[in-house]
Write a structure and sequence with these properties.
alpha/beta; 2 domains; 4-stranded antiparallel sheet; 8 helices
C-alpha cells in the first residue's frame, strides 16, 4: 500500500513516516501544498494523509483539486484546526475522515487501517485465493494456517494481485503500488520479485501467469 503524507511540521512528519513504514506501508512525504498538488496529479496512492495548514496552498484547496480530478483516493485530514466548521467543510469537500491534533498514534494507526480496508473491499481484512490467505491488518500471508515468509515488497505485490483478481497488472502499476520516490524498483527488479513469489506460492496451488507484453495476473 502506498501512502502520501502531506504535512509541513517536519518533526511530526518524521514520526508519522516512521510509524507508517513500521506498519509496512510505502510512504512518500511532502511539506508543500504546491508540490503535493503536482504529486497528486502525477501519481496514484492508496491513502492521502493531509494537513490543512500548508505553505503555498491550503490543504482544503488541495483536497478540492484532488476531487476535481475525479480521484476517489481516501483522504484522512490531520489538523490543529478544531473549529467544527473546518471539519464540516473538509468532509463536504470529500475527506473520508478527520483527526484533530494532538492525537494518539494508536488512533492514527487504526484510522489509517480502517480507511485502507474500506477502499479495498468494503472493510475486508482478509483476502483469499484457494489455500492462500492474506491478513491485511497484520500484513501477513498464510497457506492454510502456515505463515508464508514474504518481505514487504513481495507481500504488497501479492496484495495488489489479489485485490485486483481477474485484472492484469503491468509492471508500472506494480511499481506504483510498492515504491517510494527515493526507492523506486526497476522493471527488472519486479521480475525478480514475481519469480520469487511464484516459487513460494506453488504449495498453495496459486500461480502468477505472465501475459507477454502486458503484465501479470493471479490464477
Amino acid at each position: 500500500m502506498r501512502v502520501l503524507l502531506i504535512e509541513d511540521d517536519t518533526i511530526l512528519a518524521d514520526g508519522l513516516v516512521r510509524a507508517l513504514k513500521q506498519a509496512d506501508y510505502a510512504v512518500d512525504w511532502s511539506g508543500d501544498g504546491i508540490e503535493a498538488r503536482a504529486i497528486l496529479r502525477t501519481y496514484d496512492f492508496d491513502l492521502v494523509i493531509l494537513d490543512l495548514t500548508l505553505p503555498k496552498l491550503d490543504g482544503l484547496e488541495l483536497l478540492r483539486d484532488l476531487r476535481d480530478q475525479k480521484k476517489q483516493t481516501p483522504v484522512l485530514i490531520i489538523t490543529a484546526r478544531s473549529d467544527v466548521r473546518d471539519r464540516i467543510h473538509g468532509l463536504d469537500l470529500g475527506a473520508d475522515d478527520y483527526l484533530t491534533k494532538p492525537f494518539e498514534l494508536g488512533e492514527f494507526d487504526a484510522r489509517v487501517r480502517a480507511l485502507i480496508r474500506r477502499s479495498h473491499g468494503s472493510g475486508l481484512q482478509r483476502l483469499s485465493c484457494g489455500r492462500l490467505n492474506l491478513d491485511l491488518t497484520a500484513h501477513r500471508a498464510f497457506i492454510d494456517l502456515e505463515p508464508l515468509d514474504l518481505p514487504r515488497r513481495e507481500f504488497h505485490i501479492l496484495e495488489a494481485l489479489m485485490t485486483g483478481r481477474g485484472r492484469i497488472l503491468n509492471k508500472e502499476q506494480i511499481i506504483d503500488h510498492i515504491s517510494e520516490f527515493d526507492d523506486e524498483p526497476s522493471p527488472s527488479a519486479v521480475e525478480i520479485y514475481i519469480s520469487r513469489l511464484r516459487k513460494k506460492l506453488e504449495p498453495a496451488g496459486v500461480g502468477i501467469r505472465v501475459v507477454r507484453g502486458i503484465g501479470y495476473i493471479l490464477e
